Amino acid sequence: MGIRTNNEDNGYNPRRGGRKRPQRSASGARTQPDSPLADPGAERAKELQALHAVAEVLLRTDLGPGGVLQEIAELLPLAFRFPGIAGASVRVGEVHVATERFAVASPWILAAEFGENADVSGSIKVSYSDARPGAGLGPFLPEERALLNTIARMVCATFQHRAMEAALGRSEEQLRHIVESIDEVFWLYDWATGQHIYLNSAFEKVWGAKVNGHRDIARVFLDSILLEDRPAVATFLGEQRQQLACEVCYRILRPDGTIRWIHDRAFPIRDSEGRPYRTAGVAKDITATADSEQQFASGVARISSLTPRQRQVLQLLAEGKSVKEAAFLLGRSPKTIETHKAELMQRLRIPDIAALVRFAMRQGLIR
């Protein structure tokens, strides 16, 4: 924070180290300068009132940047000893406002620069259009300099916060566009409120159900889970309460009567101090994969029930060999091969050769 004070004469001579130059009357006799502060208590009260008023303006959400700075510029002269000849200028970034009395070319300007190495920079200045006696600082008092510094820090901090909020808002909007375009269900749970605070539109597609507000999400979610899978989901929710990264697979029953397999993952979100305050999750419909895995597991079990000879016959028939060719390769009669074929198709619950080939391909018996 830099402060620049520029004052001329009128009892103050910077070339003499800031000491007052004696004043003389018309007769040439030395006289005492005007009192720099007639009522210190009243001046401090004005400064405190100005700080309070500026703080209230900075908290207003109905004003844009220009409106906030204009209000502050109008308040500043009232906090100085000679408001009748005072003007103010406030700049933050490219937004610049000034009162009518602000004298750009005045030799009596008190300035506070801020944010030179930050994302938000600017300055606050107060000028006098005429000189007034001062005590070591020309027309301006040390308390007024400190006041301007304080207000400059307040303005800088507020506009930095606004800039961060704007950037966060843009980031959240970009994130919203992303999560609304994916097929997975994205959800966000806030531990302070004990509620889900976000659920993307994929939920309605996967669950086949609508929710009436954030309070309804937990009810729709829990009611949809199959009874057999609720213990696993309860463990999953318990791990979330312990702020752990966790995952689970479970089945849901949709309103249309269909069952879907869900793979749900959750992970904690931490604040700047490393404390978890939210949990984010992604739930994916894995029904197609789960069905394929179940079919594969069922097929493996059924193959294991075949005799070694029946497995040989299955392999040859799936490769496209005829019954006669299989009989020749195995050294058995066609009638024996026909018997093996009928028995293995019955055990595998396969109606015809085409289905037998597809089954063998799923099981990796042929390519």
Question: Can you offer a commentary on this structure?
Answer:
The protein is an alpha+beta fold. It has three domains: 162 residues, Beta-Lactamase (2-Layer Sandwich), CATH 3.30.450; 104 residues, Beta-Lactamase, CATH 3.30.450; 72 residues, Arc Repressor Mutant, subunit A (Orthogonal Bundle), CATH 1.10.10.10. Helix content is 43%, strand content 20%. It has a five-stranded antiparallel beta sheet with strand order 1-6-7-4-5, covered by helices on one side. Helix 1 runs antiparallel to helix 2 and helix 8 packs across helix 10. The N terminus is likely disordered.
Summarize the structure.
This protein has helices at 40-59, 65-75, 142-180, 202-207, 217-224, 230-241, 287-304, 308-318, 323-330, 334-348, 353-362, and strands at residues 2-6, 23-24, 30-31, 86-92, 95-98, 108-114, 122-128, 185-190, 195-199, 246-253, 259-270, 276-285. With 367 residues, the protein is α+β, with helices and mostly antiparallel strands.
List the helices and strands and how they pair.
Blueprint: E1 2-6, E2 23-24, E3 30-31, H1 40-59, H2 65-75, E4 86-92, E5 95-98, E6 108-114, E7 122-128, H3 142-180, E8 185-190, E9 195-199, H4 202-207, H5 217-224, H6 230-241, E10 246-253, E11 259-270, E12 276-285, H7 287-304, H8 308-318, H9 323-330, H10 334-348, H11 353-362
Antiparallel strand pairs: 1-6, 2-3, 4-5, 4-7, 6-7, 8-9, 8-12, 10-11, 11-12
